[in-house]
Amino acid sequence: MKRILTYITSPTRNSSKSARKTTFSVAPSLLIHHFFVPLLLCCLLAIPAEAQRKKKKQPAPNPIEVARTMMLTGDYPATIEYISTELTAQKKLRRPTCNVDSLEFLIDTLRIAEANIRSTQRIVFVDSIILHKKEAIERLSLHPEMGKIYTAKMLKNILNISFSGMGETAYLNALGDNAYLSVKSKSGKHVISRSIRSGSQWSNPEMLKISEQDDAEQDYPFLLSDGVSMYYAAQGGTGLGGWDIYVTRYDNEDKTFLKPQNLGMPFNSEANDYMYFIDESTNTGYFLTDRRLSNDSVCLYTFIPNTSHTTFPAETDFKTLYHAAHIHSIVATQKGQEQRIEEWRKQYANTHKLSENQTYIRFIITNDVVYTNMDEFKSQEAQQIAQQLVPLYTSLR
């Protein structure tokens, strides 16, 4: 079947003045080829152009969300550079595409975090164990010469004193005459307090004066054997987030504790970091944290304490610092520290071997004279009295 097409043509020089009508027949296949195929090609070519127009209409990504995504990679310097560039661009717009104040707050927070990460202490970790939070305190153990850590409720029963509003933990020194715990103050905040033994009686807890920590919640005290350096945790104030670990020292002249210092990373983080103590007899440090864990679990880290504040070399790349600050790998902290770890293991093993066969007790005679052995007493009567004190001392441990 053919289709009849008629064209009206204009007159030519050799034709009549009137227009001519030309009629001819065309097969349907030729009709499709000459008319519909070009039309179809035009439509197909128009689709990508239309898609590009639609793509251009999509809103630009929010700079705040982009910055937060970059921050999760741990590359803080690159994130700060991105935010700085974006802030300059946003301030030039009549209608900023994001909240500029939020962007400025984020960059300030990142700069503080970057500074904290760059000052991370170089710590050698030797072990870690995940515990249930309620059982963690019971698993903490110290050499008898270092004192004893209790739950606050347990120590209250031992001291047989009456008070309310206890914190979580308490510390009893090696001599058994000073106890440190957290007690609720009139303002409703928990404050580190001390109870002193006089004879067989214990005083009511007296709140310690720690400079510039009046508005913070305080708990988890631990006192070094020097009787001066105290570690504890506080929530609120200028911490990194949650509970943070601090150290303060007692000023004998003013009878107050000096301004506390935040231990910084890796001991503190955005999570809760609280129980910190050092067993000087084995040169072993411990601290508890719930970072990257559920609310009911905590991780007990074991580390080798530094004799001084030790940081990473200035040329250390930021990614390494970031991982060290967040304790991403215990093995990574041990690289190049094999000899130090071996020395620590020997000291730890020897101390525990001795403690299995000896009962450690110190008898303070004067400020300069301390007996650690019964044979040091000059008279038999003094030895007998000392022997009677040993079981009493052991019962307090």
Using brief descriptors, characterize the structure shown.
disordered N terminus, six-stranded antiparallel beta sheet, 397 residues, single chain, alpha+beta
Task: List the SSEs and their pairings.
Blueprint: E1 3-9, E2 20-26, H1 28-57, H2 63-71, H3 76-92, H4 100-118, E3 124-132, H5 133-139, E4 148-151, H6 152-159, E5 166-172, E6 178-184, E7 190-198, E8 201-202, E9 206-207, E10 217-223, E11 229-235, E12 243-251, E13 256-257, E14 261-262, E15 273-279, E16 284-289, E17 297-304, H7 318-325, H8 330-333, H9 338-357, E18 363-364, E19 370-371, H10 380-396
Antiparallel strand pairs: 1-2, 3-17, 4-5, 5-6, 6-7, 7-8, 7-9, 10-11, 11-12, 12-13, 12-14, 15-16, 16-17, 18-19
Mean pLDDT: 81
Count of DSSP H/I helices: 10
Which range does the strand content fall in? 25-35%
Question: How many beta-strand elements?
Answer: 19
Shape: elongated
- Tell me the Rg in angstroms: 38 Å
Largest sheet: 6 strands, antiparallel
Determine the N-to-C terminus distance.
112 Å
Question: Can you put this structure into words, describing what you see?
Answer:
With 397 residues, the protein is of the alpha+beta class. Helices cover 35% and strands 27% of the residues. It is built from ten helices and 19 strands. The protein has helices at 28-57, 63-71, 76-92, 100-118, 133-139, 152-159, 318-325, 330-333, 338-357, 380-396, and strands spanning 3-9, 20-26, 124-132, 148-151, 166-172, 178-184, 190-198, 201-202, 206-207, 217-223, 229-235, 243-251, 256-257, 261-262, 273-279, 284-289, 297-304, 363-364, 370-371. The strands form five sheets. Strands 4, 5, 6, 7, 8 and 9 form a six-stranded antiparallel beta sheet that branches. Strands 10, 11, 12, 13 and 14 form a five-stranded antiparallel beta sheet that branches. Strands 3-17-16-15 form a four-stranded antiparallel beta sheet. A hairpin with a 4-residue loop joins strand 12 (243-251) and strand 13. It starts with a strand and ends with a helix. Residues 1-10 and 15-19 have low confidence and may be disordered.
